[in-house]
Every structure is written in structure tokens, then in C-alpha cells.
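A common beginner's mistake is to predict each chain separately and then try to dock the pieces by hand. The better habit, illustrated here, is to supply every component at once so that their relative placement is modeled jointly.
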Amino acid sequence: MSRSGEFLEVINLSKHFKGLRAVDDVTFSVGNGEFLGIIGPNGAGKTTLFNLITGFLKPTSGEIHFVGRDITGMKPHERVKLGIARTFQVTKPFKKLTVMENVIIAALIARKQGKIKEDEKNFAAEVLEKVGLLHRKDMAAENLPHGEVKKLEIARALATKPELLLLDEPFSGLTGEEVASLQEVIKSIHEDGITVILIEHVLKACMALSERIIVLNYGKIIADGTPEEVCMDKQVIEAYLGRRGLEFASG
Amino acid sequence: MRGMRQGMGQVGQGMGLMQPKKFAVPLVFVAIATIIPFIAPSVYLLHVLILAHIFVIYAASWDILTGYTGQLNLGHAMFFGLSAYVVAITNTMLKTPLFLSVLMGVASAFILSVAVGLPCLRLRGPYLAITTFSFSWVLFLLASSAMIWLSGGEEGVRGVKTFIVGTIPNYYLSLVLMLISVYILYRIASSETGLILKAIKEDEDAAMACGIDTTRYKLLAFLMSGTFAGIAGAFYAQYMRIVTVDVVTLELSASAIAFSLVGGIGTIIGPAMGAYILTILFEGFAWLADYRVLIYNLIIVSFVLFLPGGLMSLRDLLRRREEEGGGVGGA
Ligand SMILES: Nc1ncnc2c1ncn2[C@@H]1O[C@H](COP(=O)(O)OP(=O)(O)O)[C@@H](O)[C@H]1O
Ligand SMILES: [Mg+2]
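With all components supplied together, the output reads:
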């Protein structure tokens, strides 16, 4: 693994909602090229953490550094231009636009920045091909089945040419078959050199993909280690994984 | 292949030559519009059509902000009205040359669009609608009572100069102005910028996540919208040569919505069509004018309920039928 602490650094980050500490003094860093999983029970603060990293929320306190730059005060679109892309847990397709147009919009900005040299339509087609949606390119996004909307979210994020990709529960609501195929897609994205942070409830997929896992509970990090380490961690097992964790840990 | 071309039509350039059909309707319209003064030289008819041309620009300019960008503007008359008043007041009271007055009128609409746009950038949904409505309401109150010494109230500001005297010259001038304005707005709407505006309308967060500076693009939409409405208002002032509170009424703001709903919101051409048809209808059947507000409201409600896509959606429906019918007419 490459040097951690230089790519993404989250330093004493907190976000309070009227007294509720959704993210509570969280510190961690992610190395370039790493695949980090973030797990934790519902309401643990995972999505809030993503919103802070991507600039959709302003932190109550703390800092975020990306490639050595303090990005804490930057707007979401500025962070995208720096190379941070995200998907939404509750999908947000441009419903009335076609699948192709959805992806082209993200590619347009990347092309204006010079990140894409080729024609943005060709590039968008390549991205759609990668996630397996090219056959749907002319369909209005609102007509896509749920599993494919999830893929569209990822395609759109990829079209911004990110260096860091944040995926918020991309597997939720997918069938077993869909999970398997999406898992391959995400794996190949990581193999292309993109650093990935994956929030996931489908533990099996998350454990299989992640090199390292952070466990959040009540806004705090309660464990940080390899999937194996995390699964063996008593605190994690008690606080979150419960019986399922024990089952997983014992194979 | 066909599907691919269609899917990209929104973004693509140079599609025109491949689709001569696309130009047929506008060309026929321009041809007919050009010869109307010869085949029907009625001053009254031409007057109605001049107003129609003005309101076409007005409706299309509303559409770029609300139809494309999704920023609900309930007070569009403020841009039209402010520009018209500034033209009339500077020209008659300060005696500035007309072309300078017109420049000032359009500039005032531009400045107003910044003034309204900036606070609106942070607002969404109903708050935005209420804010735009309030701005136009303030302008109406100023014109109808508080600043009556300047606006002349119901009497209005009279004696505005005109660029060209005569109905026929004004007819052609308004026709050219309308064609240029609608063409520009349509080109913008069909460009990359238009696609980005649509994305903002669909989902602002997702647009941001695509790297779009949504604030900048929303402000751009406000500017374009306000400025073109200002152009329409300035032309109106020099053509009518009198400006009354009519130009800042709630009714005029509502008409932008009614025109656009009839034609089809978010298409530029639709609102232009709607404005053309409804203006002729209202001016042609003067007795209808008394029921104008009622009719606008009926139109708004019934189109929202039964044909939210307006007349343009009927066209799309026909096209789809045609395609499904085995492509008999296909090229
Ligand atoms: N915008 C918000 N306003 C108020 N409370 C919020 C907001 N967003 C999240 N929360 C609260 O913060 C906590 C963490 O939420 P979230 O980050 O969505 O958790 P997770 O993604 O881990 O399920 C929850 O209790 C949630 O109700
Ligand atoms: Mg969540």
C-alpha cells in the first residue's frame, strides 16, 4: 500500500445536528489507491461523513485534506474538480434525461477541465460500457429498474474522472445476482487506480472488496483494520455486528 | 443508429443538415409571417401580431429560467415592466435619445435579474416562488401607488418616441427581433449549457456532484431570462409609446406561465407558440379580455392536470406514433 496520510486526511472531524453528534471527532486517513470500507449500524453517521468529505455539509469542527490541500471550506463542485466523486445512497438520477445524457453532463465538466481529451460522448459511452449500461443509453433514466439506477449513479461519478470515489451503499436493494455483477464493476474501477471508499450494509461484498475497514458507531470510529481484524474485534462484535458478526468471523 | 442520434440530439451540433424536416415548420412560419402584411393589410391584425411577437420573446425568456432550470418565477412581469418604464421615463422626462433609453431599459432588467437572482440562489421550491412573486408585487405597488408621480399610474407615461413610425415597419421590426431572440434562446437551450440547466432542474445535488457550479448556472439563467424579458419590454414601450401599470401586473406574470403551459414548458418553442396563439386569441376576441385572469387560471390548472407537456408533447406523441407505425414515413 502506498503512503497513507497524504491522499485523504480527515482530522478531528465533527458534525452536530442540534445536539446530535452525527459525526464525533473522527480522524483517519486513506492512502492513494487504497480500498476502504466503512460499516456501521443505521444512523452511525456514515452518510454524514460522506457529505462532509464531499462538501455537501459543513463540519461543526475539524478539517479535511486532500492530496495535501485543506479542502474543508470548498464547495462540492470544486471538490469534484479536484477529483472527489460520490454516489448517493438515495439515488438521484436526472430522471427526464436519457442515461447517456446523465453521464455526458458529468463528462462535460471533466472535458472543460481537460481531464478528458476525447469527445465527451465517446467517453460517456465507454463509461456506460464499463458499468454495463450501454444498452440502455437512450432510455430515460426514470424508466430504469432500480439495480441499473445504482449503476448509473456510479457511471455518472466515474465520468467526472475521479481519483477518489465515494460509494454510499451501492448494493442496497440489489438481488444476489446484481450484487455479484456490481462487485466486479467496483473491483475493476479500483484496479484502474481509483481510490475507493465504500459504505456498505451488504457486509459480504464490503468484506470481499475492502483492504481495510473502518467501523462507525454513534459517530465515532470504534475499529479500524483489515476485514479479518475488524471481524474479530470484540467491541465491533458487541456494538454492531452481534450474532451475524460472530457467524462471519467463525466462517 | 437512429436512437443514438436522437439521444444525442440535445447535445449534438450540426444536426440540422441531416434533418431538413426540423426546419420545415419554422420556414413555413417565417414565409407566412413575411407576406401577411401583403395578403391581410389590416392595421388591427398587424397590431395584434406585433403584440404576439413581443409576448413570444417574453414567454420564451420565462422558459429558460423556469422551464429549463426549474427556478419557479411567478413574477416575470417585473423584468418586462421595469424595462418598459425605464425606457418611457428616461425618454420622456430625461429626454434621452430612444436608443439610449432602450439600452438603459434592458440594462435595468439585467440589473434587476442580478438583484433578484442573487438572493434566490440560496432558495429552493416555494421560497423561491414567493420571493420572485414579492419582487414583482413591490414593483407593481410602486408603479400603481407609491411612485405614481413617476409612473403616472393608470394614466401611464405617455409620448415615448418610436424607432419607426407605422404599423407595417413595426411589424417587421418585431418579427425580426422575435426570430433572433427565440433563435438565440433556443440555441442556448439546445447547447451544453441547456443540458446543464436541465440537470439542475432535475436534481441540484446530483448536478453539484457532477462538478457543476450550480450557483453560477442558475445566475446565468436569471440573467438571460431577465434580459430577454427586458428586451421585450423595451420594444413594447417604443411601439406602444405609452407605458401603464399593465406592464407590471400579476396578470402579465401569470400570462408567462399560461403561455408556456399551453405550448409546453422547457422547450422554448412551446412557450413561444403558446404566447403567439393566446395573444391572438385574446386580442382578436376583445370581449375575452374581461375574463383574462380567469382564463389564464383555467388554462394553468387544466394544462397542469391534463396536458402538463403542452402542445409540444402532442407533437412528440404524434412522432412516436409515426415511428411505431412501421416507419412508413421514415427517411
Ligand atoms: N440533515 C440532517 N439533519 C438532522 N439530522 C441528520 C441529518 N442528516 C443525518 N442526521 C442524523 O444524523 C445521524 C447519522 O445519519 P447518517 O449519516 O445518515 O447515518 P448512516 O448513513 O450511517 O445511516 C442520524 O441520527 C440522522 O438522523
Ligand atoms: Mg447512510
